Amino acid sequence: MNPLRHLRHRLARTLWKPLDRREERAHRPQWFLLAGLRGPDSRCSPDPGSLKPIIPPADRFWADPFAWSRGATRYVFCEEYPFSKRRGRISVLELGPDLLPTGPAVPVIDEDRHLSYPFLFEYRGELYMVPETARSRRVDLYRCTGFPHRWTLEGSLMTGIEAADATLIEHEGRWWLFCAARQGKARINESLLAFHADSPLSDAWIPHERNPLVLDYGGARPGGRIFRDSTGALLRPAQDCVPRYGYGLALHRIETLTPQRYAERRIWHTSGRSAGGWRALHHLDWHDGLLVMDAQRLLPLEGAPGG
């Protein structure tokens, strides 16, 4: 990354912090979900403002949605964060034909540690989940033993690394694991690393020779499942953390991906403010015709002016 651009990003984040603290003295940030039926065409303009909001109860937030379907029924797995517990768990929502929940969110993985970003993938007829467990310094793998509610811990893909938002993709006969992580001077919100293996169930992932592949607050950290558009191109959602975490979202077209080389270019970008007047927007998932995203709003705190 250009050193001057990097300095500008860090300066913008520093200057923005007092404004955020002032807002949050009287308000609580709440993530909520967005959903709509559409597929990733070659233009790939997700248009978050046209999606249907799915609002959680006021005592929690829902973020990092990943869609899945069984038959005609659609589900969304997400981080559910009850404010009273001060840690996330993985829950699932069943959506009706109107794309609204048919009932309350049901916890499916709830442990004595923070869980988020429930990345889903299928391999050899089995459904797996890799939720974020960065604070445990592990990338853990769960297998579905009774869809959608029962999940069993199978083991760890990697240990000894504070990895966030692990995202897997098969490409040209190899499996790739992308994540954000602390490495050297790189911080989680500005880093993209990649590892590769011959199986997504491997515990021997090889670091990419050029890690970190991207060092940029404006578009490094993963922001959802890597998917293919209608032309077969790989598109990587990325978080824009300038001027604050989760401020916006970008799509990057991966143009080169080998164990020795990596190249991508940005093809789409928006912020929460420009997409729907929201405070933040930081995740996107497309699966089986369902597009899900998340956005953030501010809720007045009880006892605060206007609350």
Topology:
Blueprint (H helix, E strand, L loop, with lengths): L2 H24 E11 L14 E3 L5 E11 L2 E10 L6 E7 L10 E4 L6 E8 L2 E7 L5 E9 L3 E10 L3 E9 L2 E8 L9 E7 L8 E2 L6 E2 L11 E2 L5 E7 L7 E10 L4 E10 H5 L3 E8 L2 E11 L7
Antiparallel strand pairs: 1-2, 1-21, 3-4, 4-5, 5-6, 7-8, 8-9, 9-10, 11-12, 12-13, 13-14, 13-15, 16-17, 17-18, 18-19, 20-21
What does this structure look like?
By secondary structure, the chain is mainly β. The protein has a single domain, classed as 5 Propeller (Tachylectin-2, Chain A), CATH 2.115.10.20. Helices cover 9% and strands 51% of the residues. It has two helices and 21 strands. The strands form five sheets. Strands 11, 12, 13, 14 and 15 form a five-stranded antiparallel sheet that branches. The chain has a four-stranded antiparallel sheet with strand order 2-1-21-20. A four-stranded antiparallel sheet has the order 3-4-5-6, with no helix packed on it. Strand 9 and strand 10 form a beta hairpin.
Indicate the CATH class. Answer: Mainly Beta
Helices, by number, come to 2
Alpha-beta content class? mainly beta
CATH architect. name:
5 Propeller
